[in-house]
Amino acid sequence: MGRHRPGHWTLILVHMLLLQLHAVKVQGIDPVSQKLRRLNEQFQQFQALTQARLDMLALNQNRNSSQGLESRLQALNDHYHHMSQDLEHLKQSITQEIEGLREWSRKLEKKSKRIEGRLALMERNLRENRRHGQKQKPDPSQDFSNLTLELHNQEERLAALQDQRDELHKIPARPVPKKDATICNVDSMLFFPSASVENYVTFSLTLPDLPELSVCLWLRVEASHVGTLLSYATDDNDNHRADESGAAGEGTPLLNGSEQPRHSRQPSEGGSLCQIGRLSTVDLEEEITSDEESQRGRPKEIPHNEKLLSLKYESLDYDNIENQLFLEEERKMSYMGFRCLEISRWVVCGLIGFLTGLIACFIDIVVEQLAGIKYQVVKENIEKFTEVGGLSISLLLWAVLNSAIVMLGAIIVAFFEPIAAGSGIPQIKCYLNGIKIPRVVRLKTLVVKVGGVICSVVGGLAVGKEGPMIHSGAVVAAGVSQGRSTSLKRDFKIFEYFRRDTEKRDFVSAGAAAGVSAAFGAPVGGVLFSLEEGASFWNQMLTWRIFFASMISTFTLNFFLSIYHNKPGELSNPGLINFGRFQGDSVAYNLYEIPLFIAMGAIGGLLGALFNVLNYWLTIFRIRYVHRPCLQVMEAMLVAAVTATVSFTMIYFSNDCQPLGPEHTEEYPLQLFCADGEYNSMATAFFNTPERSVRSLFHNQPGTYNPLTLGLFTLTYFFLACWTYGLAVSAGVFIPSLLIGAAWGRLCGIMLATITPDGSIWADPGKYALIGAAAQLGGIVRMTLSLTVIMVEATGNVTYGLPIMLVLMTAKIVGDYFVEGLYDIHIKLQSVPFLHWEAPATSHWLTAREVMSSPVTCLNRIEKVGTIVDTLSNTSTNHNGFPVVVKVSGSDEPPKLCGLILRSQLIVLLKHKVFVELARSRLTQRKLQLKDFRDAYPRFPPIQSIHVSQDERECMMDLTEFMNATPYTVPQETSLPRVFKLFRALGLRHLVVVDDENRVVGLVTRKDLARYHLGKHGLEELQLAQT
């Protein structure tokens, strides 16, 4: 059937309708209903057929479009794959370029530091020369007369030589010797030209006091001292030293083997004085490197010299800056305002104690769980292979587990936050002393500290988790007291008044005390620790607040641990370490035992001195050779593996088997080769956490340990602990010291019980283990007052106060005779300008004139902005405080002191553009508030980040309302002990030295005072260096 257009259907239907009507009329039938029904049926059939055809067409069309879409998607997928490969190649190339740029940046930064250090030293030398020249001021008339006399003498000699010229020509010529100078290398000594007649140098004309000098005697040094320099002192230069390149540096001549103070080095009147001395490293980054190491940009060896003080450490401002802004704010504050501030201090101290206790609880629970899993796995493995053989697999498993766990702790310390290494107590001591240690109280440091100490203890190292708690508490205090986190860039707008070093120092003291309290359950000991070990300021209210923080800390830890042990409300865990109660008749002591306790204190002092000396030389080795992060991680893994190997070996070869009674205290008893119902006693000490081992030595019944076991354990653990302290891991030395002392102290108790008739009655091994632990810890850290109270509080028996005090005093006296305490040694190794409580005993003959730094960069009260920017940008300006002077109008007199302003204040003023144009008649500059300075605290931007245009450099800045108008000053003739006492007691950062007319002549800073210390040969002066 052919297809019709839509218009034909209508005509057809009308035609058909007319035909039907005509037929109906003829037949007499009603056509409407019948025809319409037929027509409807036909239309429905047609509609169904049409719909079917349309569905078929749509299906065909969908199939065609689906096939096209699939092919297009495949093409897009292939294109995406090719683009991903290109992007991956591009990413790899960009990563390589970035690494190259970083390596180049590190090299450039290192070179710039070297250049800055050299420039600073050259600037200092120039200032010293200028000052020395001003002091000497020789009389020119005397020099002219001497020169005239010398000229006459030379003319007379020249005339005499001319008269004898003919006679000299008549003398036959003597043959010139052809013998060459001998250069020999014998063993470890280098002998430069031999001491023959040909090798003598004559100085009779220029140096009358030194007519001849043998070159052989002049340059005879050890071959290992490659850096030997020639040190010389003349009338023109006050003790300088030159190397073969001609660069001058500040020298350190040797007089009778000891270094002399700078002011006592007087030049020789007869001319030059030649001296030879070992290299005194002025720049610790200036080292000898091989060609390969130079290309890598890292030194193979970093030399160390303890006769240096680092210039990189800055002081904290522990003195309130009483400028006009501060005084206006204080005067506006009402009595209720001061009361609210006091309440806020108590609230902050409570938060510090609460958070420190939570952190201690977290560390204790995690360590207990992870250590339990590790020891259970190793114990099951050992028991399995004890029966079938192959204990080497157990040893390998133990070593691998320890190394893996310690590796994690070392990586986060060495690569992410190196300041978190160790216990952190030396750094906190320095902070409380007034020294700004970079990154020491940051949130990142706290996170790494907590994670590192968990890995160290679980990894089986000879460490404790109690020491790092002091550092953790200090970081918590520093963060909470500021009401914001600069690391997270979150400001909670609270505690803004406390954003200054004075308030922050007090809260850090409370945090350190809370850490001690959480570690040992000794709140009073924590307060005394903050007082004894570093607090630079103290008052009654501060004592109460610190004690409050300590009590909250130990209560928080006790409460949450009671919940963890399913004994809520039973507060029996006041600290991370629980010595247990020393009660009963067996642990009481008699009067005749006190001399024995004192003797044990002397032994502890000797062993502590040996420990510190060995650790000192080990730290020197690490500074020189193990300074790369990867090497530090490898060393930590090595120590962990060696510790596991030694422990396993000691347990394996020990035959000290003890019966396993119903009241045994061993958490993971090892049977090994012992009979059924017995356990290996050596495993009690090694196969456990250090805290549990200490408690076992204190409270196990007599006969639990064999004397040979205790002796071998003491010797082994002593060297393991000494090797471990100083690794790039977070760890403390408290518990290892207690464990070593408890072991040899218990051994002493066993020996006394054996060699005395009734020793088994009064010589309780646990009692002597406690005395030995106190003696060993005191001999290493040299703490007396706070450690006595800590031990008494931890034991819960005040009757031991007198013996422990005598033991600690004896250990300190004996140990100090040989070497300093461990924390003081590490502070000195870091070249930190630490100020002790008193000035050196032999320094009364020194005055402020010899100690001060001069000349001093001063600023006018109304100063040009360009001058301020140039002063702050000058790298040779080491000081962070600048005296402000004012000149009397209409007078030619030098300007006089009127105030002191800090670098940080000037940075804030420049950042906020607090200056006006010079053309204005009145200086009406922008008004700032103390809030602007507190918002910038503590990370003030560097001067390089502040843009000052050329037009702005010509503007003027009025420093009147920002400077401290009443700085502390001293006359030039003030003795060093008096200057030291004033500086230390008031927590100053700068002390201005003035003359009789209040003119600035010098400035005393922390580094100037820390240069002088009491050495073995009297008063010694250290050198300042950019390390």
From TrEMBL:
Keywords: CBS domain, Chloride, Coiled coil, Ion transport, Membrane, Repeat, Signal, Transmembrane, Transmembrane helix, Transport. Residues 1-28 form the signal peptide. Residues 234-273 are annotated as: Disordered. It is found in: Membrane. SMART domains: CBS. Residues 105-171 form a coiled coil. Residues 963-1021 form the CBS domain. GO terms for molecular function: chloride channel activity; chloride:proton antiporter activity. Pfam families: CBS, Voltage_CLC. InterPro entries: CBS_dom, CBS_dom_sf, CIC-7, Cl-channel/antiporter, Cl-channel_core, ClC. The chain crosses the membrane at residues 343-367, 388-416, 507-530, 542-564, 594-618, 630-653, 717-747, 768-792, 798-819. It is a multi-pass membrane protein. GO terms for cellular component: lysosomal membrane. The keyword Plastid does not apply. Belongs to the chloride channel (TC 2.A.49) family. This is Chloride channel protein. The lineage of its organism: Eukaryota, Metazoa, Chordata, Craniata, Vertebrata.
